[in-house]
Amino acid sequence: MTDLPSPTAARRGALRKALERLDPTLRIVAEDVLALESRIDLVAVDGQRRIVAIVLAEVGEDGHAVTRALAHREWLAQHLPNWLQISPGLGADISAGARALVVASSFLPETLAAVGSLPAGWVELLRTTERDLPRGRAEGPSVARSQGRHESPATMVFRSGLSTEDLQVSEEESKEFD
User: Are the beta carbons of 152 and 116 closer than 8 angstroms?
Assistant: First the structure.
């Protein structure tokens, strides 16, 4: 078994708080869940009653984290009937399906391309910085979703998944894309 190191409880706590602000419909239902050979950092139920695997990736590990997230998504979908039997009030719906959310400070172009080739709704990438999720401090990140659905005030994310930071576009230049 290759149980990969999972983020500290403090970092998971910071992520939990940030997600509460970013998507109030996302309700965390479990933390640090062993699935297959690695751990799911957080498990949630979203506003569409889907079960969600949330993986916090370390710098440079985003591609591996996407692989883990896909495996976790599938594992959760397969085990959801058991979870609902144990906890009928969980709020998830088997027919709603499952999705995964990968949180990292940056994503390699290969990761962006790979996630872009997946069916819509399977995996979402959420960009943050180490400063936003410091080790040992419970603060939440200011993030931008890779597919451009949500933006932080300082960073605009384009359909390509690249941000204004990636493209080195100034705030003034990014206004042209609004």
Answer: no
Q: Taking each helix axis from N to C terminus, what angle separates 109-116 and 62-86, rounded to the nearest 10 degrees?
A: 40
Closest among 46, 10, 2 to 31, alpha carbons compared: 10
Confidence of residue 165 (pLDDT cuts 50, 70, 90): low
> Measured between alpha carbons, how far is 20 from 121 in angstroms, rounded to an integer?
20
Give the C-alpha separation, 20 to 13, whole Å: 11
Structure-token match 């149980």, residue found? 3
CA-nearest of 67, 64, 50 to 121 is: 50
**Which of 50, 170, 26, 174 is CA-nearest to residue 103?**
26
**So what's the pLDDT on residue 67?**
94
Token couple for 172: 């003034």
CATH numbers and ranges of domains, the chain: 9-152 (3.40.1350.10)
3-state class of 16 per DSSP? helix
Cβ atoms of residues 139 and 132 within 8 Å:
yes
Rama region for 97: left / alpha / beta (φ>0; ψ in -120 to 50; rest): left
